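agent> Task received from the user: take the single chain below, predict its 3D structure, and emit structure tokens. No templates, no multimer pairing.
agent> Plan: (1) validate residues, (2) run structure prediction, (3) serialize to tokens, (4) report one or two observations.
agent> Step 1 OK, no nonstandard residues flagged.
tool_call: predict_structure(input=
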Amino acid sequence: MTNSHLKRLEFILRHDGKSWIASHAGVEFFGSSLEEVDKNISLYLSSTDKNEDSISVCMRFDMTSLPRWLHQYSSHYFNRTVKYTNKSDKI
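)
tool_result: status=success, residues=91
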């Protein structure tokens, strides 16, 4: 796969104590697990970006969702990238 056909989207990822939430352009995707969030994003992308060969979804953890005193443990939180093909398959 070449990067010339790779669309990249940036999401903000946070956890509210119950669910993972990924947000992008005013749209939020919820899930009790990251896998469920990935599935919900995949369903959305398959209905909106049908002309793209593949899409890279970069999820950046929102450190502002944590109390300031927890920032010293920030290595426990993460950023992640999930790639989807035009068939809505995660790779």
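agent> Step 4: summary for the user.
The beta strands are 6-15, 20-24, 27-31, 54-61, 79-85.
agent> Done.
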